Amino acid sequence: MTFGAMEAAQAQGLVAGRDLLFSGINTSAEAMQAVVDGRLAALSGGHFLCGAWALVLLHDHHRGLDFMSEGLELQRPMFMLFDAPQARRFLQRFGDGQALALDFRPYSKALNPGLKRYPFQLEGLLKAGSRSE
Is 77 within a domain? Predict the structure, then answer.
């Protein structure tokens, strides 16, 4: 929707990031590049990881670890606000659109008994090692 609004503005002779400010919720390469280019003033994303975090919890539960130690409600920030440097990192790590083999083992308490709390944050994936293809 944001890119449609940007196209409509451009058709009126307006420039995104200069005449109008746009924001969105997305982690596509196109959206990240728009942040880097200054066409998107604000971009949030990361909700796609909700399923991955749920699978880590199921993995641990299957191995006998109850996530009750996290409390009755598991609340973790799913979204991250991207600035240009973070968008560049995201593009570097995930930007080619290829299916990536992400290693979720560091997030499992069953595989990492020293973890006190699940480290579910998108920022951690951006800082993780190089991509594996």
Answer: yes
Given a cut of 90, is residue 68 above it in pLDDT?
Answer: no
Residue 127 and residue 133: Cα distance in Å, rounded? 17
State pLDDT tens for residues 21-34.
Answer: 999 998 889 999 99
> DSSP letter string over the chain?
-HHHHHHHHHHTT--BTTTB--EEE---HHHHHHHHHTS-SEEEE-GGGHHHHHHHHHHHHHTT--GGGG-SS------EEE-HHHHHHHHHHHTT--------GGG-TTT-TT-SS----HHHHHHSS----
* Distance in Å from the first CA to the final CA of the chain: 31
The predicted model scores a pTM of 0.74
- 50 lies in a domain? yes
- Assess if residue 101 is contained within a domain: yes
Burial class (CB in 10 A: 0-12, 13-18, 19+), 46: buried
Nearest to 122 by CA among 64, 56, 78: 78
